[in-house]
C-alpha cells in the first residue's frame, strides 16, 4: 500500500491558496499507485504537532471542488515556525510520531518563504530521524516576495483587487474634488516590498488617470518632498490619489505607521500608515481628504480574483504532486514567464534551499526616479498577472463559499503541548 | 421648439448614479416632442451657477451608454446648498439667467435628501422669478436614508460590496485565529443610520457564519457590554468580526470616531472608528486583531454592483423624465416594494416636499434586542436589494470605465462668483 499524503496551509492566507489545495488533492487522487489517502492538517504545522488531521475522504466532493473558488485557508493556517532541530528535538520527534501513526509519506506545505523553511526542515529531518518523508513546498503569498519564481500565487488577485478599487474610488474623488475631497489615501499591505502598492498604478492603464503618488515600502519618507509633489499634482489635476504601503519607512528606517513616542504625548499610537499620512496632509495642506485601509479585504477578495492567478495557484498544487510522482523531493514549484507579450507561463521546480527564508524585493528600477511611481518595466511585469476574471458562483446575491466539515481522524498518539507563546 | 433639459449630480456619489444619468439622457432623447437637447451641468448646481454646461450631443454615444456601468459621478458632483431665496436672491437670479440663456425648461437633480431640497427651491423659484422651470429629483444615496422610497439607488450596491468582503475577510480571520488574528474590525459609512453596517450581516445568510457584532450609528457605545459580548463570542467561536458604523456614538451622543480632547494630550485625534475601536480592544483584551476602513471603496465598487440596484437607478432616471412627459412637476421617483418574496418592485412618484431634507433612519425593530445584530425583518428587507450581478466590461484585467469629454457650451452670461467658503 502506498503511503498517505498530508497537505497543510501556512502564514497569511490568500484568495487562491485553496485553489492550490484543490490542485494537490485532485492530483494525489489521480495517482493511486503513488499515494494512499490525502489528508489535511488543521492550522498548518500546528495541526501536525497536535495530531489534528482531517480525512478528506469524509468531505463532500462538491465542497472540495469548490475550494478552487473559495478564499481564506479552508483547513486553517498558522503563524508558527519550527524550532532549531538541535534546540527543539522534541518537536521533530513529535512530527515523526504523528507521520508514522498515520503513515504519511509526503508532506505538502503551502506558504511563503518562512513556510518553505519549515518544509525544508521537515525534508531534512527524515534521514536524521530514521523516518524518510518527502516534503514539498507549494508557493503562496500576496506579498510576491518569494524567490526564484517569477510571481507568487495570491499576489495577482490582490493586485487586481487593488487596481480595481483604486480605479473606482478615483472616479469618486474626481467627482467630488471641486467642492470637497481632493486627496484619497489608500493603505495596502506589504511590510517589506512595495509590490501591492505598485499594482495600484495599473489603475492608470486605461486612460492615464488617476493622478497618483505611491509611497513604497522601499521608500524612506521625505515629508517635504512628498508634500511638494502632492501640492503640484493637485494644482495640475485638482485631486490626487495617494497609495501607501503599510511598510513605508521614516528617514531613520523605522516604520512610518508607528508614531514615534513623543515628549509631550507619552503614548504609542496604534499603527495605520493611512490615518497617520492623512493627519499629516491635513495639518500641512488643509486639503479635504478621505482615507481607506483594505487590510484582509485585499487578500481575500476572491470575487475579483485574477484568472491567471487562480490557474497558476491550481497548477502549482498539481505540479507539487506530479514532481513527487516523477521522483523529486524537497522542491517548490515555480512559475516561469516564458514570454511577456503575449504572456506565456509554465511551471518549473526549485530546491527548497533556494526559497526558504529568502525575501525577494521589488527591483529598484521598477520605481520611477522621483520615487512616486512605477516604470514601464514594472507595468510590463505586473499587467499579465491580473488578466482574466474567474467569478465564484453567486447565490442570493453573494459569492458562495462552502465550508469544509473538517472532522478529525481519531488520535493515535499521546497528547502533545505546543508552545505558541 | 421644445425647451432643453439639464441634468446634474449632487452629494456623495455612488456606484450607480451614472446609471440614473443614462436613464435620464436616454428617456429625454426618446421624447423629442417634449424636450430639445439634453445637457449636463458640471459639478452639480455649482455648474449651473458657473454656467459650466456640457452638451451631451458632443459625447461619444458609446461613452454615454457606458454610464450605465461606470461608478463615480461622470459630470462631477458637489457639496453645496442653495441659500435662502430671501437671503440670497442673487443666486436665484443667476440660476434664471443661466437657464434662460440656454433655454432650459426642465432641471433634473440627482442626489439625496439635501439635494432634493435644492431641487425643491428651484421648483418654487420659477413662479417667483417669472421663469417657470420644472425641477425633478432623482434619488441617490448609499446611506439609504431617503424618505418615502422603499430603498435608495446606490445603497444596494454598497451593501452587496460590504456583505461580500465581510464574507471573504471572515474566512481569512477564521483561517488565522488559532495562532494569530482573533478580531477583525471593519468600519463602514453611515453617519446617522446603520443601514450599511446592517448589510454586513447578510454575509451570514449562507451558513450562519461568521460570528459578528455590529455597532450601529444608532448605538450609544457601551464599552463594558461590548467587550463582554466580544469575549463571549471569541470563547465560543474562536474569533469575531466587528462591523462599526462611522457614526457610532459615545454614551454622551458625541461621535466615537473623534477622540475626546484630553487633559494630558491637548490634541484632537483624526477620526476613524475602526482604529479607535481596535486600540480599545487591544488594550482591554490583548487579542490580536486587524482592522479595515473601506471608505470611498464601498460606494464606488461598481465591479460588484447589485443588478437590482443598477436596474432601479436606471429606472428612476427614466421615470423622472416620463413623469415630466406625463405633466408632473416637483416630484422624485420612488421605489415601491410590491412584494417581498419573490421581490417585485415598481416606480412611483412623491412630491419633493416629502423628501427634501428628510432623513429616514433604520427602524429600531431591525436591530436585535442586544443591540449587536439585525432581526429577521431586517434580513427580509435587505436581501432583495443585493440580488443579481451586473459586471462591467473588463479590459486588460480591469473594469473599463470610459470618461466623458465634458466640453462646455460657450458661455452666454457674464461671470458669476460662487461663494463655496
UniProtKB/TrEMBL annotation, chains A, B:
Gene3D superfamilies for this protein: 3.40.50.450, Phosphofructokinase domain (3.40.50.460)
GO molecular function: 6-phosphofructokinase activity; diphosphate-fructose-6-phosphate 1-phosphotransferase activity; metal ion binding
Catalytic activity: beta-D-fructose 6-phosphate + diphosphate = beta-D-fructose 1,6-bisphosphate + phosphate + H(+)
Keywords: Cytoplasm, Glycolysis, Kinase, Magnesium, Metal-binding, Transferase
Principal EC category: transferase
Residues at which diphosphate binds: 12
Pathway(s) where this gene product acts: Carbohydrate degradation; glycolysis; D-glyceraldehyde 3-phosphate and glycerone phosphate from D-glucose: step 3/4
Pfam families tied to this protein: PFK (PF00365)
Enzyme Commission (EC) number: 2.7.1.90
Protein location: Cytoplasm
Cofactors named for this entry: Mg(2+)
GO biological process: fructose 6-phosphate metabolic process
Site positions for Important for catalytic activity: 140
Activity regulation statement: Non-allosteric.
List of catalytic residues: 143 (proton acceptor)
Binding site for substrate: 141-143, 189-191, 246, 296-299
Span of domain Phosphofructokinase: 7-322
This protein's GO CC annotations: cytoplasm
NCBIfam families: PRK14072.1
Function summary: Catalyzes the phosphorylation of D-fructose 6-phosphate, the first committing step of glycolysis. Uses inorganic phosphate (PPi) as phosphoryl donor instead of ATP like common ATP-dependent phosphofructokinases (ATP-PFKs), which renders the reaction reversible, and can thus function both in glycolysis and gluconeogenesis. Consistently, PPi-PFK can replace the enzymes of both the forward (ATP-PFK) and reverse (fructose-bisphosphatase (FBPase)) reactions.
Subunit structure: Homodimer.
Family: Belongs to the phosphofructokinase type A (PFKA) family. PPi-dependent PFK group II subfamily. Clade 'B2' sub-subfamily.
PANTHER family: ATP-DEPENDENT 6-PHOSPHOFRUCTOKINASE 1
Name assigned to this protein: Pyrophosphate--fructose 6-phosphate 1-phosphotransferase
Organism (species): Thioalkalivibrio versutus
Gene: pfp
